[in-house]
Amino acid sequence: MATIKDVAVKAGVAISTVSAVINRSAPVSEDVIARVEAAISAIGYLPHGAAKALRSGNSRLIGVILPDITNPFFSMVARVIETVCMKAGYMTFVYNTDEDPQHEMHILRMMRMQRVAGMILISTRSDAEHGRRLMAEINVPTVLFSSAVPVTPYDAITLDERKASRLAIDYLAGLGHRRIGVVSGRPLVSTHEERLESCLEALAAHGIPPQPDLIVAANFDQQQAFEATRALLALPDPPTAIFAFSNLMLIGVMRALVTSGRSCPRDISLVGVGDFDWPEIMNPQVTVVSMPAAQMAEFTIATLLAEIAGKRPPTGKRTLFPPELIVRASCASAELMPSQKRRQPARAE
Amino acid sequence: MATIKDVAVKAGVAISTVSAVINRSAPVSEDVIARVEAAISAIGYLPHGAAKALRSGNSRLIGVILPDITNPFFSMVARVIETVCMKAGYMTFVYNTDEDPQHEMHILRMMRMQRVAGMILISTRSDAEHGRRLMAEINVPTVLFSSAVPVTPYDAITLDERKASRLAIDYLAGLGHRRIGVVSGRPLVSTHEERLESCLEALAAHGIPPQPDLIVAANFDQQQAFEATRALLALPDPPTAIFAFSNLMLIGVMRALVTSGRSCPRDISLVGVGDFDWPEIMNPQVTVVSMPAAQMAEFTIATLLAEIAGKRPPTGKRTLFPPELIVRASCASAELMPSQKRRQPARAE
DNA sequence: CATCGTGGTCGAAACGTTTCGTGAAAAAGT
DNA sequence: ACTTTTTCACGAAACGTTTCGACCACGATG
User: SMART domains this protein is in (chains A, B) (predicted)?
Assistant: First the structure.
């Protein structure tokens, strides 16, 4: 491979001069610029990223750590980040954790070895102990997305989780539902904790006491949501509506409904959080609490870039974005439902 | 940040000795190993990736270039690659091209600046001119996935595209369909060209002459497939079945059906290529030609890793994987369809 | 006329590793 | 007891850049 030295001899100038024209870091005469550029394209020179990074102490690399790129929400976020970063002259490493804290630590280590200039961390555990281990491992500008880890000095960008729950529960309760199943996420994840807490508050506000048997945790996992819903439906007095904490879990719930021969919204109503790209092709078209995902992603990467540039120091603050209820066809009034007596408990299995 | 030198002084040994214990690249006494390891964890030393890469000439980086990570097919492939690479001690750069050749070239350049050890290139244009430009830019072990560029020395892993078309057309023709719409991809992409060619062959084998007005190209794009389908449905004599060349385009077709008030499979039958994760929640559940995506991805990365390790030189050969027809509920016998006379042409717009 | 920038160029040091040749000490062979 | 081999540790060079101080020529300033 050609090096900067080859360019220098070909153009008949010093190495440092070539560097100056490449980076426009010092004044160079028109004449020399032309010669150097000619030499560069003549021998097909491409700077060596690692050498640049080593010497300049700036890798121009950004790490993105997320639960699962297979989830359309995260892949969309990753694309936004990639695009913005590329424009700013940064490359991105995107890595999946599957929400496994140990794996997450490993990835963090790899990113630090690459001396990333900054990181975006999505949806990790958020208990204090994990927070401390995280902080020990991170010492690079970082912003948290879609989750809030306590006791960190890092900025966080999230949905207004409490409002999201309220939107869903108010809607369902407004339709007359009193037995509302909640397919929640994973304990210790802030998204889960906050949504769950305000779910209970919203239910209470409608005079509905906590019904522990209707609240199941499915770890933000599609298959677990499927199984949890099967269990919910097998209850002697099953819920008339279900609120699922994520898009993938909503899919799990829907699969459980078709497997059990339930029709939505005739037999049961459904609300999820997180929208889908093509709701028209789903059966039924689901009512969801949507989030301004693209804007959130843009704000996140802008915050990180500003912090890296040293323009804005980390404030440790949290920025909330407002959710929105999108009503489609997966909910019906509780009064219009066929009486629960008429329906048999799901066949034993 | 701590350097290897700090470790060396802390452990009271030479720098080269520390390097030897980190990389197990030379015999070191138990005693010294212990001292060095203690020093490493004491000061929290992490090797500097760029320095390693620069000196050793091995970045341990692999580039993955794909059209769009948002497409579930590609995100799944990316995950498989990430996992396998991580086990082999490589990190991955995943980048989106949106099938834009110019952007693709730019990404290629960035990857070469990072001195990636190898690349996986997915679904690019495959005409000879682009192939030449590509070859000028690439000089690193590479394997092509899901597309074949002619005149390259690189291995390619693809579906057996001809069989995929045959499976779909045989099935549809077997149901009695004679007017079969084809929502194809993008000219110059091998996947498109081969599928289209064998579509025509398969149609001919069933005594169906080419019907140019029923064949539309939608660039593998969901929205374009939507529009193309609208046009197809507005034809005086619309098709009774549609074959879409990709998962996303199939979604576009389905959206067009919904928007036009067509019911599938009553009014029109549908086959796509590429399966969906949760077909149960779709309306209707689609019949598709599926591909063994995970196995293909594993084979691809294994091939690349072997080539990087120098175990297997690039053969320039192409490996085909067999597609499979998965029959679900989106196709009906042409004879059972309401007569086409009874149906009005789609309302003008 | 002496002095002071200033635009343009250069050479060399440094970034944090790996690698290779050297050599001392210990182990093995005669 | 003397060589030969093996084992372990070391020092220094090199990887391809950036960056900084030095230098020179030249026009501007006092």
Answer: HTH_LACI (SM00354)
Picking from A52, A59, A69, A285 by the largest number of B CB atoms within 10 A of its own CB, the best residue to mutate is A69
Q: Does residue A92 have a pLDDT over 50? A: yes
Nucleotides of C under 7 A from a protein CB: 7-12, 14-21
The answer to whether A157 touches A169, Cβ cutoff 8 Å, is no
> Which residues in chain A are contacts of B108 at CB distance < 8 A?
none
- Residue range B161-290+326-336, CATH number: 3.40.50.2300
Output the pLDDT for position A328.
Answer: 97
Give residue for tokens 């004679």. B178
Write out residues 24-63 of B within 8 Å (CB-CB) of A: 46-51, 53-54, 59
Give the Cα separation of B335 and B201 in Å (integer): 24
Q: Is A100 on the interface with B (CB under 8 A)?
A: no
Q: For B286-321, write each residue's pLDDT tens digit.
A: 999 999 999 999 999 999 999 999 888 888 899 999
The alpha carbon dihedral of B334, B336, B337, B342 has a sign of positive
Q: Distances in Å between the alpha carbon of A238 and those of A47, A88, A230, A268, B70?
A: 64, 53, 10, 9, 36
Q: Is the peptide bond before A212 cis (omega within 30 degrees of 0)?
A: no
CA distance B124 to chain A (A): 19
CATH number of this structure's domain A57-160+293-322: 3.40.50.2300
Assigned CATH topology for domain B58-159+293-322: Rossmann fold (3.40.50)
- Residue A338: pLDDT band (50, 70, 90) is low
Q: Which fold has domain A161-290+326-342?
A: Rossmann fold (3.40.50)
Same fold, B58-159+293-322 and B161-290+326-336: yes
Confidence of residue B335 (pLDDT cuts 50, 70, 90): confident
Q: Is A255 on the interface with B (CB under 8 A)?
A: yes
B270 strand-pairing partners: B242
Q: What are the structural domain ranges in chain A? A: 4-47, 57-160+293-322, 161-290+326-342
Question: Nearest residue to C14 (CA, C1')?
Answer: A55
- Confidence band, pLDDT 50/70/90 cuts, at residue A147: confident
User: Which of B44, B17, B45, B46 lies closest to B29, judged by CA?
Assistant: B17
Alpha-carbon torsion (A197, A199, A200, A206), positive or negative = positive
CB contact under 8 A, A278 and B82: no
Are residues A70 and B75, on separate chains, in Cβ contact within 8 Å?
Answer: yes
Strand D bases with any atom < 7 A from protein Cβ: 7-21
Mean pLDDT is highest, among B23-32, B134-143, B151-160, for: B23-32
At residue A253, does pLDDT exceed 60? Answer: yes
